[in-house]
Amino acid sequence: MPTVTAGDTRVHYTRAGTGPALVLVHGTGSAGAGLTWGRLVHRFADRHTVITPDLSGAGRTADGGGPLTVEGLADQVAAVIEHAGAGTADVLGFSLGAPVAAAVAASRPALVRRLVMVAGWTRTDADEYMRNLFTLLRRLGDLDADAFGRLLTMTGFSRGFLDAIGRQGVEELVSNVPPTPGTLRHVDLDARVDIGPLLPLVRARTLVVGCAQDATVPVARSRELHAAIPGSAYAEIDAGHVAFFEKPDEFVKLVRDFVQAP
After folding, report:
1. Which domains does the chain have, with CATH numbers?
2. CB 124 within 8 A of CB 130
3. Active-site positions?
4. Burial class of residue 166, CB neighbours in 10 A (0-12, 13-18, 19+)
5. Can you tell me the distance from the alpha carbon of 30 to that of 65, in angstroms, rounded to the nearest whole number?
6. Are 52 and 68 a contacting pair, CB within 8 Å?
7. CA-based, 20 to 30 A from 245: which of 43, 124, 165, 177?
8. What is the mean pLDDT of each successive set of 10 residues along the chain, which is 262 residues long?
């Protein structure tokens, strides 16, 4: 696994496939890129060089362990793009990765050809539901690991999807998101996101994807994100927060069509 240093962080990333670079930026969780994108990399690698960094707090990436910032994580993604020799890349960010991807596009426009933001938002403290959700997750992380995993699972997937995979499938999902120190650092940053000042600086052609049944980031927040980025396109998937688990074919087609359009 290649690595690159960004500030005080040794960032690990993977690459697969050949073709124009597509960087996939994961969201909250210490398992990082492997768990988030493991089912999708091969779906893009036939036409792209797919690059999947582990951000601070996730995977094998190592840093000093302090509080995270969107700008600091964006620097890590930018360092990976440069180290991988990707030139100008298409950058897709999911959940917490969406504001990080936007920060890369705003601060390093020469590195980002097209930007895709999935289940993203602009500012946490403007939404009382999200502020309270992340506050509750932080407290549960210190008190009850099982409850933490169950709340993330309940808010991460639609009710129809959870019923469809059944009890065993749900229990497996609960165990996938333990409240590790890295995950709790992500949740702490979730509660502090504010990328409003960066959005007018985004020049890359942008697609914002909202998730109609999202119980983590209400779809209205994705619609607001779209409205805040001049010239951006918007699409919606009728699924929960982790839409690419629930409707992978629809998700892959949506991303492919956007990044391959003239």
Report:
1. 3-123+194-260 (3.40.50.1820)
2. yes
3. 95, 214, 241
4. exposed
5. 13
6. no
7. 124
8. 95 97 97 94 97 97 94 98 95 98 98 98 98 98 97 98 98 94 97 97 98 98 96 98 98 98 92
